[in-house]
Amino acid sequence: MARKEFKLPPVSPLMGSTQSVWRDTLAGLPIDAQFNTKKRITNGIINVTSPFRSYERNNILKKARKSWPKQLIFIVGHWRSGTTFLHNLMSQAEDATYVTTYQTVFPNFMGSQWLFRPVMKWVMPNRRPADNVKLNVDFPQEEEFALSAMNPHTYYRFMYFPKYYDRFYRESVTFETMSETDKAQFTRDYCDLVHMAHWNRPRDTMIIKNPVHTARMPYLAKEFPDAKFIHIHRNPYTVFRSSLKFFTKLLPTLWFEAVSDEFIQEMILDIYVRMYKDYYNSIEQLPDLNLYELKFEEFEQDPFGHLKDMYSSLDLGDFNASSAKFQDYLDLKKSYKKNVYAFPENLVEVVDERWGEYVDKWGYNVP
Q: How far apart are alpha carbons 346 and 1 in whole angstroms?
């Protein structure tokens, strides 16, 4: 039975990474003394499981590289903007494939799920800590965590070392400081991730959800020119309040270097502005992008209708073939209760000052 509370054992999700990725991810970065046990246990697991990775590389990956979806759909938008709801809904489609939650932790052990999947199922909590969303090893999940176990140049390193979020952003999101050699390896690893997800669940349409991709549009458009994009945005006041709760609960379970709640707040405020500045600069430079813009509050009121329009606008396939599955999922979600937040004056002032441009751009008010 999965654990009820979001309390991980002293081991990092990087336990599913390769030895070289683990070494390079930590290289030169400080680790607080209280996390040395986590480091030692994670390192031990990576060493012990090395034979399984060799089997994967020499057997499973070769087969998987022959497998590729016919269609890539990227869901982008800042954390806490409704990307998970949209991702889960679209993944109900008959022809949908995706990166599973299992794959996000064990991307290098897809051929050894018989061993590692039950362990992960036992360790993993039933629900996410910040919003009570159900978790399951087979559910769709964003792939940046999986990529972190395959490549040392991914943005979710900031989850482990928050103080370096600026450095990681310039290197792994906008690629300003990443070498061409490392960028080429990043692309190869990303493609292998898609190959493995499709091999694991061979369907025509890959649904990918990743908030980081909001600022990676030029890279994605270049590498996957036929891809289609859905951007979902939500009231910035709600996003800020929800992000504070989400990251202040999540980061302490992952990091190797602790930071204060005040630091987390400033990080959230800064990343949001960077992300959307880069997003809007990108779409101005990419006028032919297959992009669908979606307002979460409108989508929430009529998800079925908006999804149908999305299928038509982006030519995603036969909506009717999966409409019953979409409706079944929406019926199950009717009992879900969202968090209700208070919006004190100081919070409103911070959002107005730092994110006011997007409050006005999207036509929002204080909830």
A: 42
